[in-house]
Amino acid sequence: MSPFLRKVKTGSGATAVQIVDKSGGKYRIVEHLGSARTDAELAVLMRAGRDKLNPGQETLELGIESRPDPTRAVVQSSASRLLVDAIRAAYETLGFGAVEDEAFFQLVLARLVEPTSKADSIRVIDELGIPPVHRNTFTNALKRCGNNDYRDLVARACFAYSVSTTGISLLLYDVTTLYFEAEKEDDYRKVGYSKERRVDPQIVVGLLVDRSGFPLEIHSFQGNKAETHTIVPVIQAFQERHQVADMVVVADAGMLSNMNLQAVDDAGLRFIVGSKQAKAPQDLAAYFRWHGSHHDDGQTVDTITMRTKAADPSRIDKRAEPVWDPEKNNDQWRAVWQYRRKRAVRDRQTLNQQRNRALAIIEGQSRPKTARFVRTTGNTRTFDETSYERAMNLVGWKGYVSNIPARTMAAAELVGSYHDLWHVEQSFRMSKSDLAARPIFHRTKEAIDAHLTIVFTALAVARYLQHKTGLSLKKIINQLKPLREVTINIGGHELTADPQIPEDAAEILQKLGMPG
Description:
39% of the residues lie in helices and 21% in strands. It is built from 17 helices and 16 strands. Strand 12 (374-377) and strand 13 form a beta hairpin.
């Protein structure tokens, strides 16, 4: 069968125009002509395809050559030049040009525009209208990524940018998991705890960002490694890379372990970590003793908490509200607790749901299973009223553990710094959704690390574009990608037509410091 034009929908919602042929019942793509988002773009691509399929139609079979129509326009090429230039400018501004690898840039570009496989990235780049490198060059770029330590170059550039803009006095840390489409485990990809309750082999990824969510350090670990064992290696790697001594590390309660906190403290760093609710009765005993159960919205209690279960709780003065002193309380940490009415309402709803579930089990209305507030003695189940009342007395309270004295950081500022953690969570969501960091189809650790370096670099570029424009990455792509520069041949003369830039796109370009 002779080649013909085909229109297919892409993952981004555009319509790709391809020249294909069919042999043995299978379709083979001869050439990608591009993708269109409007009827006008689609008409241009279809015209270009017909011109390629019928290049000799101006020659008559009678042997008489027809004269070229001087008014006939033929589209030779089109490119999303504004989008590519905007991303390249951001890439260079962040200092990533130090990598000096066009294939690596194109992989980052494809990850930003339409995340897909390494092989399919050639199509994405081609549709943008720039010459893609060969597939083998992409493969070699992944090898160069590890051999030439591209991640170190990118991380140093990210550090320099953060220091000059946001600053690195406050760093946020969190972990996530990335799974693989693989049936069997190996020494690196292992089945472990998954917040999504998946049973696929996975790796654990730790991400360190500044207070605005701009990425600074990324590391991966075996899939079965406990989250609490990841924070110290990442912080130590960050310190060694940049020779940083004075900074505050913020992490959620999942990182709370005496070993972690002691290691961070021994490194001369300051930390703010979410506390566990089980510590509240001991930490707040003096406050409740003197102030009762009435709490104002936003009320903070600045007190101390024991570092280990083996520490002597009798050293905490119950007659007054204790204040943490790093010189005196060497077996204790500072603990700040805050009460919020909105949180109390949510906590009460959760506790009542747990109470109803427990009563349903006790009364035989639900299948027996482990549940909170169910006390089992032999074959008898009863409701644990004491634990329930204790939990109800603590609704609305959230704790924070730190080694920063009150004279350095007030309680309200400490709580506010902890709440900046949503920035790192947002960065993880972006890397998993907008940049499609998962699932990963690579098999070797070297290739996986190269993939993470590309995602890390793309995340930095995406964050930069967001900070500059105030828009999501998806909105930026959708606004700029359809604006294509078209090269037309009219009677043997080439003309380049710039796209008409709508007001919204012009505003984006202006914020990025580009001509619009």
